[in-house]
Amino acid sequence: MYLPGYGGHNRTVAQHELRTIGVEEELLLVDPVSGAPQAVSGAVIRYAKDHAGVTLSGKRAEPFETELQREQLETGTAPCASLADLADDIRGGRQAAAEAARGVGAAVVALATSPVTVHPSITPSLRYRRMAYAYAQTADEQLTCGCHVHVNVDSPDEGVAVLDRIRPWLPPLLALSANSPFWQGRDTGYHSWRQQVWGRWPSSGPTELFESAKGYRTAVEAMLDSGALLDEGMIYFDARLSRHYPTVEVRISDVCLHADDTVLIAALVRAMVDTAAQAWRAGIPPDRVRTDLLKLAVWRASRSGLLDDLVHPVTRRPAPAQAVVQALLDHLTPALTASGDLDTVRRLLRRLLERGNGAQWQRHVYTRARDVRAIVSEAIAQTSGTAEEP
User: Fold this and answer.
1) What structural domains and CATH numbers belong to the chain?
2) Does the keyword tRNA processing apply (predicted)?
């Protein structure tokens, strides 16, 4: 995904400039009949290259990328300033992925874990083979799909100031996006089992305060010097500075079943970045909440999603999920108003809360059909946009 360079715009409240947003979605490749994941990412990418019609609105030279497992595919948007353009790119990417998958007899689903039993296979690149050897079963079982939101920042210092200030507000994003209740054919009891599996990586999760760009680099270099990570690409923080783009990259969310939910998460992340950057410029220090408390908040969001108490980002006490979501919306309302996104976010959020997150949708389908394959079958239509939302 191409994103422009650091602009040094020195944004102010009085002279607000929209930050661009880019979204990367990881999708499962499945057999359209059995619902079982299929190790065909290489074939899908070759098909897309051989068929010029399979593109993302002509905005990306390479429409798809491989991931650790051959049963998944990554698609990404161009940098977008408006939520309408972002929505078009997200839907276009999903439709292009569905078309390319059909070309090799497969389908794509926006599910963060496979409901159907699977034995994943590592993508045969040198780096991924090294990861498989170094991390053993942790790598073998990492067939999980996330949603990564990139938002432009003006400098590394601004980016780190943002990272330091958004920490308490990330767990509600996981509760909203949670879309992985099933694992190896059974209900885990979690809304986001992906978060539990992903948490096995040694560098994953919430972070301490970095204080400055230098502090961030010092922390990253110390992690690499430990020898526990293969390379900087394995800095798997819930939110990090992108290695390739001048962005903050928020990685905590499951891939969302519904494209509208992805747009909502992206809009909330942009507002988080704006809110945090303005606080930094105003000299407001970050909340010094302990990292162990943040881990508890992430676990709580992973466990119960929107159906039980979450850890409130301000009080650190249990609070109903909808109260926590409302606190998040209140916290971001000035930034959403300035960007012109408030009405859209309210509409999308209301729709998600009425319908439920992806985990609730999956369990509803399973309760009706009593077969995990039905979840995949119905998710194929939801992902490609050929089915109406419930």
Assistant:
1) 21-384 (3.30.590.20)
2) no
